[in-house]
Structures are given as structure tokens and as C-alpha cells.
Amino acid sequence: MIAWRLPGTAFPDVAGALATPNGLLAASETISTEDLLAAYPQGIFPWYSVGDPVLWWSPDPRMVLRTDEFRVSRSLHKTLRAVMADPAWDLRLDHDFAAVMRACAQPRNGQDGTWITEEIIAAYVGLAARDMAHSIEVWKDGALVGGAYGVAMGRMFFGESMFARVTDASKIALAALVALLSHERVPVIDCQQKTAHLASLGAREMPRADFCVHVAQAAAQTPVDWRIYRNTPLNRLLEKY
């Protein structure tokens, strides 16, 4: 049994989340920017299918990527160097946040639909308007070919989704994001749930209790000034690799 959450009410304690399915905590009829502002500092995020209630999760353990443990393979290193050398590539921050979300919403191979509904997009666009959600975008020859987006609170970044329309474009976006966060002394990116792909990039699991302690501390710190990155190409960030 999980709690039914009404708008404006508190979320249940994450310790009460179900073990099966791992982390299911609560459900609600709607989702808003204010809900996201309440959820993320507690280690809670939404994920659900079209036609279902909004489901809120806090899995244990939690998959995280430490920015100093990002794994760059030899082939990815070669790709990043090629991107830096080719003016056709342009890495940008927040140039078209909603477009990145809609690209992430496109069904992947083996998927029939998406959890990134227009309601979800509206809630996260509301966060972006408050400078608390951001997109790293990969453009080539003027076309959006890859990207990633997530939520930023203090010195904590919660990764949400990535997409690629050309080979390695999502990895290029992630590499730029990691470089930016590393420069800003943001040590951890929340990856939510374990996948083989994330593990191959260096992500690993953290007990939920430890994760929530870290989030509470990091989210209360002085926020990154994202404005300094918004109107300049981010290609130079790849020099880190």
C-alpha cells in the first residue's frame, strides 16, 4: 500500500518506500513545478506511464555518478577530441530546454511510449524558468542531435534523461555536463536507477540513506551560477578529457 498524495501536502518519509517495486513511495493525480521542488530535496522523483497516476519513487540503493569517476573509453576520448576540432559541432546550455525534453520523450527501440508527457514537460519547464533545471545540448550543422537534462539544486544535479540522434551524441552531452559540474565542485550526479549503460560510464550504487544525507547537504549549498555558461559554446569543456 502506498500513500495517495494531495497537492500541497507533504511526501511520505522515503524509508516507507516499497521494496517491490523498488522505491515506489506515493501516487498523485497531478504533477506541478511545486511538487518537483518539494520532491527532489528529499530524494524523490516522478516516473509513470501515460494513463497511470503520477508515481513517485525513491529507490534503495540509488545509482549515482561521481564526477571524478566518469569513465571515458578510448573511443569516446577520440570522439570528444574530434568534436573539439570540428566547428560543425556546437555544445550549448539551455538553448532549447523543451526541445531536449521532447527529444528524450521519443520512444526508444523496444518501447511503445514514454513517461515524458506534456504535463511532465510543463512541470520541468517551470523549474527551468527558475534556473533549477538545465539542458546540455549537442548541435551539429545547426541541428539538435543529442542532449541531456536534469534538475539542479545548490551543488546537486539530478540527471533525468538523455537522447542521441547521431552516434555518441548523448555521451558527448554527458561528458560536457560532467566537466561543467566538476569545475563547479559538484561531486555527484543522481542517475536514479541502475543500468548497464550507466555502470559502463562509471556510475555505481549508493545506499538511499547515504544518498539522502548527501542531497540534503548539497542542495542547501550556494547554487552554481549557470548564467555564465548559457551564452557561450561549451566545446572547451571537453578539454578536460
Describe the structure.
- By secondary structure, the chain is an alpha+beta fold.
- It has two domains: 3-59, Alpha-Beta Plaits (2-Layer Sandwich); 63-240, Aminopeptidase, CATH 3.40.630.70.
- The protein is 32% helix and 24% strand.
- Strands 6-7-8-9-10-5-11 form a seven-stranded mixed sheet, sandwiched between helices.
- β9 (156-164), α5 (169-183) and β10 form a beta-alpha-beta unit.
- The longest helix is centred in the last third of the chain and has 15 residues, at 169-183.
- The radius of gyration is 17 Å and the shape is globular.
- The chain starts with a strand and ends in an 11-residue tail after the last helix.
- The model has no long low-confidence stretch (mean pLDDT 95).
Write the topology of this structure.
Layout: E1 3-4, E2 24-28, H1 33-39, E3 45-46, E4 54-57, E5 62-66, H2 74-85, E6 89-93, H3 97-105, H4 118-129, E7 133-140, E8 143-153, E9 156-164, H5 169-183, E10 188-192, H6 196-200, E11 204-206, H7 208-219, H8 227-230
Parallel strand pairs: 1-2, 9-10
Antiparallel strand pairs: 2-4, 3-4, 5-10, 5-11, 6-7, 7-8, 8-9
Helix pairs in contact: 1-4
